[in-house]
Automatic annotation (TrEMBL):
InterPro entries: SusD-like_N (IPR033985), SusD_RagB_dom (IPR012944), TPR-like_helical_dom_sf (IPR011990). It comes from Sphingobacterium siyangense. Pfam families: SusD-like_3, SusD_RagB. This is SusD-like starch-binding protein associating with outer membrane. Residues 333-407 form the RagB/SusD domain. Residues 26-225 form the SusD-like N-terminal domain. The keyword Lipid biosynthesis does not apply. One of its GO terms (cellular component) is cell outer membrane. Gene3D superfamilies: 1.25.40.390. Belongs to the SusD family.
Amino acid sequence: MNYLTHNYRIIIILCTALLSGCNKLLDEKSDLKLSTPESVQDFQALLDRVTDVNINYAGSGEVCSDNYYLTDAGYAGLKNEEDKRLYTWQPDHVALSGTSGNDWRYCYKTIYSANSVIYGIKQKNLTGADNVKGQALAIRASRYLDAVIVWAPVYNKATADRDLGVPLRLDPDMNPGSKRASVKACFDQIIQDLNEAKELLPAKPIALTRASKGFAYGLLARAYLYMGDYNLALANALEALKYNNLLIDYNALNPNDKVPIKDMNVEFVFWGTMRLAPPIGVSIAFIPETLYNLYGENDLRKEILFNKNANGTISFRGDYTGSSNSKIMGVTTAELYLIAAEGYARSGQLLEAEKIVEKLQSNRWKKGKYSPMKDLGQEELVTLILQERRKELLFRGLRWGDLKRLNREGANITLTRSVAGTSYTLPPNDKRYAIAIPEDIIDMSGIEQNER
């Protein structure tokens, strides 16, 4: 069976069903058969569709995180009951059925596109396709990493071969039934894809919406950090920084600008955004004062990243997309520096860790006001780096994974929310850290739901 031709027709149907108003994947042609990709350029065109590849990374983990809170009015104003249930860590029915608001569908739609490219290049035996294949592998890995952090238990080396991960679909054939792979199998596949991708990708992409070597190494660093393999996280972060090590000097930003940080800035390694779930909309998601107060008086992030509202609430405005309507999920150099710093600190290389933290902080503090750290022990330095990570990577889709991995290490972080006088709690290592898979997906596929 020619799966590519058969299933490419399906992806056009899916595109229409899943994203209303979606354009055709290739230039419009009167005969549908003619729009089946045939060349390297055709497959590149599939991956250059930003609406299919770069946006709508899962927002569910961010909704469940402690980066923000809703007022009672903000909570009551949420249109969908599923969003309310997700915000209060309910065990089920936390995703809309159908298309909009369903992170799972967006995730696997992109995986399907990547699989179509990988399969099509192999089937047609195309030459000169290494770059395109590498992009598809990296994109697939990024979505599987996103998925396993949101919908699976935290990576635990002792149980990863038994814990349920997510289904691994590695070709565009939609006929075989779905089955959840183990968490270990998911990470094995992610790492395999990225190791292959980094050998195929260019050092510098034509556009930041395309994958590059730095992106592949950056995702490896992110994955190994989540797994708790700090040496490999460090090694891959340092490798990624060879391709881009630039940081924005916040002294050069204008805090009076509506959006001080511009899109496609020098810190981007790869441009991607998460689904902007209603609870994290800028008009209702407010920053806890305890988080805001972590920023020192001379830390420019305090005025660049936030707005203090007339009613005393604090809003976030530090999105790297140049718009409050989208939040980045791609890799940036700041994230890579923080991974490297944590890797150095946890391995006992304290001086190297301090150098990296100082490089980042000196670009975030007022000129002449930054004082280098002195004589910190390993535990103190790790704590400082984690606090710096907390301050630097707000609304990047990373906090949920951090909560899971840090609680695995014994951080004992308990989350609480209050809504209309009712208190909700998420204890460390609770089974709800594996967010419920959408019920419509369970009904259609027959895969197992997460334990509760």
